[in-house]
Sequence to fold (175 residues):
Amino acid sequence: METTPRRVPNAQRFGYERDAAEAGRRGGQASGLARRLRQQRQLEEMILASNNGAAKAKVLEIRMRRESELDAARIEADNFVHQLTTEADGLEQTIADLHAEVDELRDEFGRLINARHALFVRVTALDQRETELRARLDSDAGLDEWLRTIGEERATASAYRLGWAVDEDESDVEA
Fold:
């Protein structure tokens, strides 16, 4: 059964980070607010068109208060955006630091893997050498070949030092 690919959000499809659904939702909210305030704006326009000075002053006072509230809300939103931008910059630096640390760890891991491989090769070679030497020691022919290789005098001196060989003169004394 072949599956159809999932829909890609607009932000990814068009290469920008604005979500179309969220933008539409906010536009609809703004439109609803404007529609609710339309009657108030029409009333204000009628008052301003009249000759009543006190009513005009009150309308202007209300508009100034509304503008002041909007400015305060805009400043608060700007501060919040600045705070989020600063936090995002800090997080981006943290991400960059973590990427650098990951790169260093990868390099160290590679060095350790190479060292492990070198040790494995060395241990394998030593195991092979040990196997060869044990095989030589287990057979008389191998021992003879080994003795010829390192020299009989050297082997004899080592045998005396280890106590494996005794002078014939000393063996007569003990008997």
Observations:
- The helical segments are 10-14, 20-49, 53-138, 140-150, 152-162, 168-174.
- The chain has a mean pLDDT of 79.
- Residues 50-166 form one domain.
- The two ends are 96 Å apart (CA to CA).
